Amino acid sequence: MSASESATPRLYSKTASASQEDQVRSDSAQLFRRVLAGAERAADFLTSSAGMLASYALDCSLHVTNQSIYPLREAVVASSLIGLCSVLFLQWNGAYRGGGSLLHIHETERALRIPALSMLLLLAFRLFLDLRISYTAILIALIVIPVLVIQQKLMFLSIIRSLHGMGVGIDRAIVYGAGDAGKRIVSALLQSLRLGILPVGVIDDHPAIIGNAILEMGYRRGRSVPVLHGPITSEILKSHQCSVLILALPNLSSDKQAAAVCAARQAGVRIAFLSGLEVQEQSWTQSIDLDGFSLTPKVEPFLTWHYAIAKRAVDLVVSTFLLALISPLLLLIAILIKLDSPGPALFIQKRVGRNGELFNIYKFRSMYANAPRYDFSPTTSRDFRITRIGKFIRKTSLDELPQLMNVFLGNMSLVGPRPEMPFIVQEYTNEHRQRLEMTPGITGLWQLSADRAFPIHENIQYDLYYIRNRGFFLDIAILIHTLFFAIRRDA
Q1: 363 lies in the same domain as 449
Q2: Which pLDDT does position 108 carry in this prediction?
Q3: Residue 285: which CATH number?
Q4: Where in the sequence is the domain holding 105, given as residue range(s)?
Q5: 469 with 389, same domain?
Q6: Are residues 325 and 414 part of one domain?
Q7: Which residue has the higher pLDDT, 222 or 91?
Q8: In terms of domains, do 212 and 276 share one?
Q9: Domain stops at, among 260, 295, 330
Q10: Bigger pLDDT: 212 or 458?
Q11: How far apart are the first and last CA of the chain?
Q12: How many CA atoms are closer than 13 Å to the CA of 96, on its beta-carbon side?
């Protein structure tokens, strides 16, 4: 059986007989993670409190309302309440368990949602405690606190990365299995800096993939983990100085499983087993806890009518506003396309939307008019089908702007899986067809990742991640990442 057979949402741990030195190293890493979690809680409290105080100061300096300035002590009480509520909400939401999320999108989503929840509680405290905090200060805080929290999280992760670079708080891990589960585990570990578990190699028995590398799922393909030839031996584990072995396949034969356990015991490393249902059947979220070696599946969220209405309202308002705002730019691009090559400025094509319904998608034409209307999209700017102006508008994503009309009409949403052409959808597997449960979008996790250079259907994990974790604040987080954190210069 090949180690590339994948799957698994739950990770069980079994500690092999480790040497005293390895045990001391492991205890030190665990102590480091506990200290780190405490420091992060303190930083979140101070950042949220400071954000509320800053909002109070801005409210006082702007004199937006006619309400008399309330005492500083009341602002301090309100700030402390906000800081405490933020930490409690983050704790309840699993922010301190250590697991990172795909593209760190949930960290941004939390930074937006938690302050909003804290402000709702502050409004209640305002009534019961007779606090004279103005509504203006609360509205300002809804902007200031998320900005400060996001910046604080970035700085915190940068500090952790620097400490890891010095070898502090790191456990080196080997993953057995280079399939989909192995790729997801490697990415989860690389993006979960708080866990301090660094994958240094992936072992697989399949000879065809030996010598390759597992690339991190992310904005860029900067980090990778080499694939080594199996089977697992104590020599391989010792040579890579690893302290953790993760078996990324539940259906591993008993002989190979016993051999892996034996090798781990001889090398004195801990071993973790993955078992459960297939990866594609699970909600692979940030809710993992590799510190205790347990991957906990998240329950499939129920798509409430509140979310559907809010999502459509935002789509309608934003698309209307942007269409009115950028109409001169749209006209200019259309003129440049007409001057560059013969043919219409707009490119209209049938795409498959929600529940498999066909609709007309609108884009600026970036290829010559005689290019095949239905064919795989170019993956490089050197494609002979692309016009001169087409290279520019594709590189800057300006060719996607007319899809705001699709959003206005309700065929598409601002955030969602990208719609594909009918001939591609005809080849969908049951796993791929899950994409059709959602209204397609202009932007999404796949568009933000380095894997956007490859076909969507070959990178289904991004869309499945979004579908199983979708929510209003997650959509806002993706839009923020699109605008500020993922300005790309792809070829």
Answers
A1: yes
A2: 87
A3: 3.40.50.720
A4: 33-165
A5: yes
A6: yes
A7: 91
A8: yes
A9: 295
A10: 212
A11: 39
A12: 19
Rg (CA), the chain: 25
Pair (154, 45) in one structural domain: yes
Residue 18 in tokens: 């480790």
Task: Specify if 418 maps to a domain.
Answer: yes
Specify the pLDDT at position 16: 41
Q: Does residue 144 sit in the same domain as residue 277? A: no
Residue 300 lies in a domain: no
pLDDT mean over 355-367: 92
Q: Is the dihedral of CA 401, 404, 406, 412 positive or negative?
A: positive
Question: Residue 388 pLDDT > 50, yes or no?
Answer: yes
Distance from C-alpha of 446 to C-alpha of 437, rounded to nearest angstrom: 17
| pLDDT, tens only, 289-301 | 443 334 433 334 4
- Burial zone of 161 (CB within 10 Å; 0-12 exposed, 13-18 middle, 19+ buried): exposed
Number of structural domains in the chain: 3
Classify residue 2: in a domain, yes or no.
Answer: no
Cβ-based neighbours of 56, under 8 Å, separated by 6 or more: 72, 75, 78, 79, 133, 137
> Do 203 and 230 contact (CB within 8 A), yes or no?
yes
Amino acid type, 400: E
Q: pLDDT tier at 121 (50, 70, 90 boundaries)?
A: confident
Amino acid identity of residue 281, one-letter, is: E
- How far apart (Å, rounded) are the C-alpha atoms in residues 393 and 480? 21
Alpha-carbon span 238 to 354, nearest angstrom: 51
- The pLDDT value recorded for residue 336 is 94
Asked whether residue 5 is domain-assigned, the answer is no
Please, what is the average pLDDT of the chain?
A: 80
- DSSP state letters, 261-324: HHHHHHHT-EEEEEESS-GGGS---S-EETTTTEEPPPPPPP--HHHHHHHHHHHHHHHHHHHH
Element (H, E) at 84: helix 72-92
CB 110 within 8 A of CB 94: no
pLDDT tens per residue, range 253-275: 778 878 888 888 888 888 776 64
Per the model's pLDDT, the better-predicted residue between 124 and 18 turns out to be: 124
- The answer to whether 389 and 349 have CB atoms below 8 angstroms apart is no
- Assess whether 354 and 279 both reside in one domain: no
Of 165, 186, 209, the residue that ends a domain is 165
Res 312: pLDDT: 92
AA letter at 135: Y
| Whether residues 150 and 197 fall in one domain | no
pLDDT confidence bin for 24, thresholds 50/70/90: low
**Residue 37, class by beta-carbon neighbours within 10 Å (0-12 exposed, 13-18 middle, 19+ buried)?**
middle
- Which percentage of the chain shows pLDDT scores above 90? 25
Q: Beta partners for 175? A: 202, 246
Find out whether 110 and 90 touch, Cβ atoms under 8 Å.
yes
Task: Report, as an integer, the average pLDDT of 470-485.
Answer: 86
Tokens of 225: 């983990």
